[in-house]
Amino acid sequence: MMSAVTRSLPGLWKRVKTCRMAAGIFLWEQKNVRLCHSACVKQLPSSSTKVFRSNLLLQPQSWSTPSHRRLWGWLNTIFNRVDESRIKDVGPDRACAEWLLRCGALVKWRNMESWTKDYNSLPVSGGRLLKVEEIDATDSAIMHIGFPHFKGCKHIRRIVFHKASYLDDAGLEQLPLLKDSLEELQISSCGNVTEEGLRHLKQLKNLTYLLIYDLPEIKDKDAMCKELEEALPNCAVVFPYASAKDDPNLREKA
């Protein structure tokens, strides 16, 4: 596998070896890749972190050939994989934060103002005392197979899913894991989300604000909005336009 990747993507192997992030060290041995977690890892320079985020967490549309898309989908599957032993060792919030960060999302801890943006800024010790409160999954590579990380996280009150290319109905089906804490939710520019996925949000009875837009698979926006409003009477459901191109202000920001 290593030689095949090296031939098809010159320089990739060199980047992978230099990007020894805290999520683990990728060992390419013949046809296997093994993800090894470590609580204490070598500090990376910021340039290496940028290389990792820009080259390993690429969205599938960034590649023109099916083989490239399969490769990155396969790598992202590894990044999303749940490690039960890791959760047991460091606790659900720390393990959840590690998953989110290695997939390109940002995390804000409870009672902290700043966002944690990369794996290297995670605390080496005392992780069980930190609780995830907000998540910004913009442009992240999170997949539904990683959503079990939310189990046991009791303080997550706000999540933004924007341009999360791998987010799908199977992921939204697991969001009720956060039904006791989640208050604000945004789902936008996620092309794999359908009406069936949004219907799972009806179980989030503590939601007070729901923003959804630019979801091309939603065929009847008004009907979907009404359905959610009826199921969530205490939630402000905002579905202002069918697609991002319909809003000139959003288009200018893009």
UniProtKB/TrEMBL annotation:
Entry protein name: Putative ATP synthase subunit s, mitochondrial
Q: Which domain of life is it from?
A: Eukaryota
Please name the source species: Penaeus vannamei (Whiteleg shrimp)
